Amino acid sequence: MIATTTAQLSFAVTDSVASQTISHRPRRISPQAGRALEKLSHAIEYLTDEYVHASGSHVPSGAQLQAIQLLMAIHRCVYLESPEIQPFSEHCRVLLRQLFA
Questions:
Q1: How many angstroms separate the CA atoms of 40 and 34, rounded?
Q2: Which of 13, 56, 68, 69 has the fewest CB atoms within 10 Å of its CB?
Q3: How far apart are CA 9 and CA 48, in angstroms?
Q4: How many whole angstroms separate alpha carbon 69 and alpha carbon 5?
Q5: Does residue 22 surpass a pLDDT of 80?
Q6: Of 44, 60, 42, whose CA–CA distance to 52 is shortest?
Q7: pLDDT tens for each residue of 64-79
Q8: % of the chain at pLDDT higher than 70
């Protein structure tokens, strides 16, 4: 199981879901997607810090947690929409198939 935990805040994804959606190949991130990922990361970090610090003084609201989860889902969607970079070996394999087909 893949999990991220910060104080009382935790998110978990089963290994099967993570393996279906996340590959280990790097992705070609466009400048627009890069800026979006950066802004989303800052927003997630800010809300997470607020959530953790607020948990000491009062009970954090479920709306804060939902906002964090929504931003994380959007971040994941933006990242997964970026095309994967094909390894050099894959390019060679395709070229050889085309030559000998």
A1: 10
A2: 56
A3: 8
A4: 13
A5: no
A6: 60
A7: 889 999 999 999 999 9
A8: 71
Lowest mean pLDDT across 5-9, 14-18, 32-36, 89-93: 5-9
The answer to whether residues 72 and 44 touch, using CB atoms and an 8 Å cutoff, is yes
Beta bridge partners of 2: 13
Burial per residue of 21-51, b for 16 or more beta-carbon CB atoms within 10 angstroms, e otherwise: eeeeeeeebeeeeeebbeebeebbeebbeeb
Residue closest to 40 by CA, chosen among 10, 16, 73 = 73
CA distance 13 to 58: 28
Spatial distance between the Cα atoms of 37 and 45, rounded to a whole number of angstroms: 12
